[in-house]
Amino acid sequence: MADRFPTLCEVFSPTATDGAATGFVLAQITPKARGPIFWVQDRLSRHEGGRPHATGLAFLLGRPVDLLYLEVRRAADVLWAMEEALGCPALAHVIGEVWGDPPALDFTATKRLALRSERSGMQAWLFRRAARTDLSAARERWHVSALPSPPMPDDLRAPGAPIWQAELFRARGRMPGRWVARHDTANGRLVMGHHIPAPDPAPPLRALG
Q1: Could you give the CA distance from residue 177 to residue 25 in angstroms, rounded to a whole number?
Q2: Where would a tag sit more exposed on the chain, N or C end, judged by fewer CB atoms within 10 A?
Q3: Are 99 and 129 a contacting pair, CB within 8 Å?
Q4: By its UniProt entry, which Gene3D superfamilies does this protein fall under (predicted)?
C-alpha cells in the first residue's frame, strides 16, 4: 500500500475482541518511522478490549516497538491527549481508542485532530469500538475484521499469518472499496489485494401511480 498523506483515519471493529483493526493499523507503521508510538485509551476501551503490549506488538511487526502508553478516564481526555501529542515532533504516530459514541467525539473534535495531524505531518489513528459511523471529519474511515488465516506452509493443520477484510467506506481522495489485507513482515508493509469496488448507491425510489 502506498504511503498516505498524514491525516486522521478512523477504524471501526465489529467486536471489542477482534484484533484485526490493531493489526491493520500497525502493519502501516513502516520500519522507517522514527520515534515512539503514542497510544492513548479511555478506561472502557482498556477494560473491554485490553491494553497494547510492546512485546506483543513487536512479535506482530517482527521488530522492536517503542511505545508510550497512556490510560485516561474519559473520551474527552483521549482527544485532548491526541491533539497535544500531534504537536510533538519526537513522536512517530499517534493512536487513540474511544469506546462507543461519547458526546465529546463530535465532528468538531475530529476536525481538530485531522487539521492538527495534517499540519504536523504525523499520522493519527482513532480506533472506534462499539460505535456508530456518525458524522466525522476523518479523511479515511475503515471497517476492519478478521478473516480465517491460511494454513502454515509447513503444517497444514496450523493457522498461518493473519489476514483481514478492510472496507474503506468513506474517504477523501480515494475510491471506497473492500480488500483482503495482510502484513508483509519481510518488507514491513501492508499488502492489499483482491479489491472489490464499493457498490453504486441505490437509485432513488419512484412513486407508483
Answers
A1: 17
A2: C
A3: yes
A4: P-loop containing nucleotide triphosphate hydrolases (3.40.50.300)
Residue type, 105: L
Contacts of 204 (CB under 8 A, 6+ apart): none
CA distances (Å), 181 to each of 2, 55, 115, 184, in order?
Answer: 13, 23, 28, 10
SS3 171: strand
The answer for residues whose C-beta is within 8 angstroms of residue 45's C-beta and 6 or more apart is 97, 98, 99, 127, 129
By the 10 Å C-beta count (0-12 exposed, 13-18 middle, 19+ buried), 180 is classed as middle
Q: Which fold has domain 8-196?
A: Rossmann fold (3.40.50)
Q: Where are the domains of the chain?
A: 8-196
Cα angle for residues 189, 148, 164 (degrees, 5° grid)? 35
Q: What is the pLDDT of residues 44-55, one digit of tens each?
A: 999 988 888 888
